[in-house]
Amino acid sequence: MDLHVDSRNTARYTLRPFRKRDAETLLEAVRHSMPDLYPFLPWATHGYNQVNATRFIRDATHAWREQRAFNFAIRDAEGAGPHLGNVFVLYVSKSSRTGEIGYWINSGNTSQGIATEVTARIVQVAFEELGLHRVVLRIAVGNRPSERVAEKLGFTREGVLREELEVHGTWLDHTAYSMLEREYVSAENDIAAFVEYQSKAI
Ligand SMILES: CC(C)(COP(=O)(O)OP(=O)(O)OC[C@H]1O[C@@H](n2cnc3c(N)ncnc32)[C@H](O)[C@@H]1OP(=O)(O)O)[C@@H](O)C(=O)NCCC(=O)NCCS
Fold it and tell me: What's 8-195's CATH class?
């Protein structure tokens, strides 16, 4: 069954597919966050402009329509306000029911638990709506805030993928983290508590 395009909610945020008119607020957020995005994300370049933002939204919309990748814009609980960041889940392999989750948060809003809360919601989407068996996070070695997100949500650290991604001329090692379907079932209540912003665990 296709992943529906309605919003998903958490206690404090709305996650919804991108719309064409998000280009301006997305661009604003990317530009503001560039010093934090640049070291880790190949697409984050100092020349990032309206064309890049528009193309991203077009590609994200296309990928959703084809049921390959599902990019969500993060907004406040009313679905309004500035662009708070992106979170996505994509199929690594449909036949093996494996997916990957990724995220970035607007630099003006970090360390408020946003990444943890919205990623918890996307973990629910991954296992409950997409029916995945295995979900991975790939985190650049040394990206401590992102490692904390994986740890807080109970992902298991698998090991280091050497020189896995070239970012602006530097090859970065990544740590692979994963969660399996049965682990999600055991941790379901903890994940839900993050979605409801009830847990400050670990
Ligand atoms: C990584 C990122 C998504 C985290 O988003 P966030 O909304 O701030 O995450 P949360 O608030 O849910 O959790 C962040 C954790 O990192 C901790 N943290 C923040 N800065 C830190 C630092 N410099 N050193 C160690 N820990 C740090 C926070 O204290 C928090 O942990 P805690 O709850 O145990 O206190 C955000 O910083 C970001 O977008 N960075 C740039 C892009 C990026 O790295 N994307 C991820 C690629 S895998």
Answer: alpha beta
